[in-house]
Amino acid sequence: MIQKLIFAHLTSAEFYQFLALIVGNVDNADATKSKIKTERDALAALLPKLKTALNREESYSLTKVIEDLDARRDVAITGFYMHINTCCMHPKTAIKAAAMVIKDYLKPHGAGIATLNYQTETAILTKIVDDCKNNTALKAACVTVGASDWLTEIETANTTFIEKYQARSGEMGVKADAESFYSLRKPAVQAYNNLIEILESRYRTAVADNAATIDALKKCVDDINANVTQFKQLIKASQSRKATPE
User: Fold this and answer.
1) Are 142 and 225 found together in one domain?
2) Domain range for residue 218?
3) What is the DSSP string of 116-158?
4) What is the pLDDT of residues 70-115, one digit of tens each?
C-alpha cells in the first residue's frame, strides 16, 4: 500500500527531512481519531534528537570547509606579498615606487600572516583589504602594480571564511554528548516502520467498515506515497550524478 524506501541511500539531512514530512502527513490525518497517535508520537519524539545530531554532524563537515577556506586565503595573501615583492624590482619606476608604498605599509604586519591563528589572521586580512580599498595612496598603488585581483581574492576568501567560521561556532553549541546521527537511524527506521504498519492496518479496517476516518487515512497514505516517490527520485538523481564522470 505504501511504497518502500531504502533509507540507507538518504543523506542524514534527507533522512531527517523525510521523517519530519511523514509526521506532518500523519498530523494532517488527525492521529488521535485515526488511532495512530502512539506510533506517531514515538517517531516524532526522535525528531529533536535527530536534529541535534544532524546539527552536530554538519558542524563537523564545516570544519573541513573552514580548513579549505583558510588554506585559500593563505595562498591569496602569500601571492599578494610575492607580487608586491616582484614589483619592487620592476624596471618601470612608477610600478617600483608604487610597490614600495605597499611594501612599507605591509611591514608592520610581518611576512607570516598565513601562520597566525584564525582570529588574528582574519583581523589582519580584513584591515589590509579595507586600507587598500579606502586609503587613497594605497588604492592608487595597488592599481598601478596590478594587485586588484589579489585583493579581491583575499577579500572573497576571508569573507567566506568568516561566514563559515561563525556558522560552525553556532553549530558547536550543540552538546558534546549528543547521540550520533548514525546511532539514531535504526530506532528511527523502526519507529517509521511501526507507524506505517499501524497506518496500513487502520486504513484497511476503515475501508472494510466504511468508517468516518477513511478519507483522512486515504489522504495520509497518498501524501506519504507522494513523499516516498519524491525521495526516490532524489536518490536516483544523486546516484546518476555520482555515476557520471566529471
Assistant:
1) no
2) 7-34+180-241
3) S-HHHHHHHHHHHHHHHHH-HHHHHHHHHHT-HHHHHHHHHHH
4) 999 999 999 999 999 999 999 999 999 999 999 999 999 988 898 8
